[in-house]
Design a protein that fits this description.
By secondary structure, the chain is mainly α. It is 83% helix and 0% strand.
Length: 190
Amino acid sequence: MATAAKKSSAQTSAKNKSTTTKARPKKGSRTSRRTATASKRPKDAIALLKADHKEVDAMFKAFEKTDDDAEKQELAKQICQALTVHAQIEEEIFYPAAYDAFDEEGDDLVDEAQVEHASAKALIAEIEAMTVGEPLFDAKVKVLGEYIKHHVEEEEKEMFPECREAGMDLKALGEQLAARKAELTASLAA
């Protein structure tokens, strides 16, 4: 009887092996698959804004490193466009939501950020009206970078933690910011 049970078990096992299909091989590394999956998920507002900060910081660093005039001109243009879009989505969507969620002390953070935006926008307008080689072009881009570095530091260390504490719906805001950013970026490319 034991041999009959072994035979039956062996037959069932063989039967299962023949009907089991192999999994498709996965494409790309585990890291690239995770990155692709993460990029499909909507970012929360803070993650999106921090990604913008990181991107523009890299542009400022590239500007500082290069001596090529054409590259400097292109980088200055990219910096100005990225900051213009970033400031607009913050002012239209993020800051009003922060005002609604914050107490009076938090409102001061948003007020300061708006003033910093106004200063940056004035400098952006000056840079956009210039070309490489004109007096003060490099200096204005450098000062803009310093303004932005200060602004980013305040947002990331003071405002963003306040946003999390205030219970803002950062996922919904992130979706709104991403949609508006795509719209503005497309209009610049047109």
